[in-house]
Amino acid sequence: MSPPRNTHYPVLMGTLRKAGKRPSEPDRASAPWEANLQATCECLSWRGALDNLERRRAEDTLGETTYAHFPAHTRAALVTAHLLLERGRISEHELETRMNQVRARLQSS
Amino acid sequence: MRRFAIGDRVTVRDATTLFHHRTQSYTRGRTGVVVDHRPEWLIPEDEAWQREDGRVEPFYVVRFNQIDLWPDYTGLELDTLESEFAEGWLVPAEGGRR
Amino acid sequence: MSTTHDHDHAPIEAAGEISEFDVLETAIRGLAIEKGLFSPEDHRRFMEWAQRIGPHGGSRLVARAWLDPGFKQRLLADGTETSKEIGIDWLDPTGTGTPSDFTYFYVLENTPKVHNLIVCTLCSCYPRPVLGQAPEWYKTPHYRRRAVRWPREVLAEFGLHLAADVEVRVHDSNQKSRFMVMPMRPEGTEGWTEDQLAAIVTRDTMIGVALPRADWTADRSPVATSR
User: Fold this and answer.
1) Which fold has domain B9-92?
2) pLDDT in tens, B48-91
3) Chain B residues 56-85 with a CB less than 8 Å from chain C
């Protein structure tokens, strides 16, 4: 497979603006969403949509370019979304719409 | 029939390939010693394409002296590094067996 | 409530605040399931497995090897098979033929003359069935690139300094094998039970960036006063 394209997806780049910049601390405790994301990555690899090894390599390359300013612990999520978008598995519109729905649900609860 | 025995000195080929491989760039052209045999496996180049009829090769554990891997190695002369290679990535080192 | 946080000191995940990455993760998972990329059952099973694994398997293997020479011999000869003796089956849970699957497990014995260190330069392969999830630092290019080239400096950063007659042997797990280090049994542990020994075999001692000590267990807070 060719290396991931260095595309900037506004829906993903916007997460940093919303979340705020802060360097990743070496000893931070991981948040619950990270465990969920890790399981999601395993499922995507196991069922064939996105191989673990490819994703990890993309995390390295995109982590030095497109997502260089994002904390290290967020790169798996960003790169997973990036690759699914790049491969047309999900569309930017779908992702943005879903994120808006999820965010609204969390805000109202 | 395995090509290399434990104790053989081998050099990692510096082949160019478009396919997924797992031969690290820092080992290319480097010489080490076979220290163990591994079972025969599907090679990574064919595995990435999920070929049922992919090539199976014997694998080897090769041990390198760190001073042979890095021109400016800052550790000690007795330090080593081991990694695994498919038979196809190895050739006999010049000068033959130790 | 404002949805933008422009100040640098704003925490990404303060308690009670919505995490954008939580939102992203939830969205990815929901869409992936809807599109049939995997099932909710698949996800639940991986969550359960991840919560179950930890370094206790590896600690048990080392502690038992320290006490039982026969077990130690079997473990060093065939790590995959011998793991079953403590209930760890390397072909479960994945068991499928994906490229990133591990199939062979090797335990690397430290000796007075050889100190082993594990790394995966190509990705960040890790012996999860016996050690659980890899620590964050293990997965970083910072560790992966430096461990192969400047191993003694990396060990020194972890507080580990080895004598000049000890060979530092780095294992780059670039293929199907997965590795774990069997550290040497420290002084001051004579007469200990397997449980007592397992408690001092911490994750970092099995990666190779630390040595076990009779007076330190991983579940002890660094600032705890001595009992």
Assistant:
1) SH3 type barrels. (2.30.30)
2) 555 556 778 899 999 999 999 999 999 999 999 999 999 999 99
3) 59, 63, 66, 69-70, 73-76, 78-85
What is the Cα–Cα distance from C109 to C118, expressed in whole angstroms? 12
**Inter-CA distances, C131 with A42, C31, C139, C201, Å:** 17, 31, 14, 11
CA distance B52 to B47: 8
Residue reference for tokens 């969550």: C47
User: Cβ contacts (< 8 Å) between B48 and chain A: which residues?
Assistant: 1, 51
Whether the CB-CB separation of A84 and A4 falls below 8 Å is answered with no
Q: What is the value of pTM for the model shown?
A: 0.78
Closest Cα to residue B92, out of B3, B2, B14?
B3
Q: Do C175 and B22 touch (CB under 8 A)?
A: yes
Q: Considering chain C, what percentage of its residues have pLDDT values greater than 70?
A: 83
Domain segments of chain C: what residues?
19-52, 55-207
* DSSP β-ladder status, C114-119 and C167-172: parallel
Q: What is the mean pLDDT for each group of 10 consecutive residues in chain A (109 residues)?
A: 82 76 58 89 92 88 89 90 97 96 82
* CA atoms of C216 and C197, how far apart (whole Å): 11
> How far apart, in whole angstroms, are the C-alpha atoms of residue B53 and residue C55?
37
Tokens of A13: 């780049």
What is the distance in angstroms between the CA of the first residue and the CA of the last residue of chain C?
48
Domain boundaries, chain B: 9-92
DSSP string of C12-77, one letter each residue: TT-TTSPPHHHHHHHHHHHHHHHTTSS-HHHHHHHHHHHHH--THHHHHHHHHHHH-HHHHHHHHH
**Options 3.90.330.10, 3.30.720.210, 3.40.50.720, 3.30.390.30; CATH of C55-207:** 3.90.330.10
Return the closest-CA partner of residue C120 out of B70, B86, B78, B24. Answer: B24
Specify the long-range contacts of residues C220-225, CB closer than 8 Å, at least 24 apart: none
